[in-house]
Input
Amino acid sequence: TIAVKRVIAIEGDLVITRPPYPLPEQEISLGHVWVEGEHPEHTRWSYDSNSYGAVRDDVATALPTLLILQESRIVLTRDA
Output
């Protein structure tokens, strides 16, 4: 399965979680990252670490190829 998510926290960070995560905050374990979708208000349509917990950092392997910083400014980060 491929998922496009933002890395919100890395090992050692403390995350303030959102439902449906069972705890109000979570410290990220060694070798893990916390990922979240683009629209946190749509948790029933998007699964992220608030649904399944922190993920191993070795599965986060992709790099962005395009960053939209403003509507008028688009940056290509590498050859697509």
